[in-house]
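Bench notes, bay 3.
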Amino acid sequence: MAQYYVVGGEYKDTHFRETVGGDEEWYGPVETYDTAREEWAKHSWQFVDSCSVRYRIECIDPDDPPPCTD
């Protein structure tokens, strides 16, 4: 069963590669995309005027692992 997480935070610049605190914030897991979207909206709208804050929804499905990148 897929689990959804809201991931993000404040980044050093608008390339969104490195966070200010060093680690991204993770919220979840939640079981549905709709619930994840509500959580995403809660965090995203708090910082709507900050161009260096970004959140996204990540889906992790243990039954369908990502392809090997080795």
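Next record in the batch:
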Amino acid sequence: MLCVILLCTLGAWQIKRLAWKEDLLAKIAAAQTADPQSHAFLANDLTAQNEWYRGYVHGTYRDDLAIKIAPRTEDGKVGFHLIVPLTLNSGGTVLVNRGWFAQEEDTL
């Protein structure tokens, strides 16, 4: 009897989780189709109302502070993600994932 109650509870939780995830994916899809807007990123501006949106900022990449996150694979190849700080013209810094890069053969 306890197993039946446990399984019913887990099933109800999964249904609630599915509804939450579908809502989240709909918000992300709507944000991806919206026009990008200029935005000044401030620590106190990270609220739920602007959690998902397209935007752009102006600043200078700090390549001297770049971080490689490795190992990461893509299509069976070994590589890394390159994370670079961007110093904003409006002040502050954000981290930008510049993407995945293949590992050079001579550095393996």
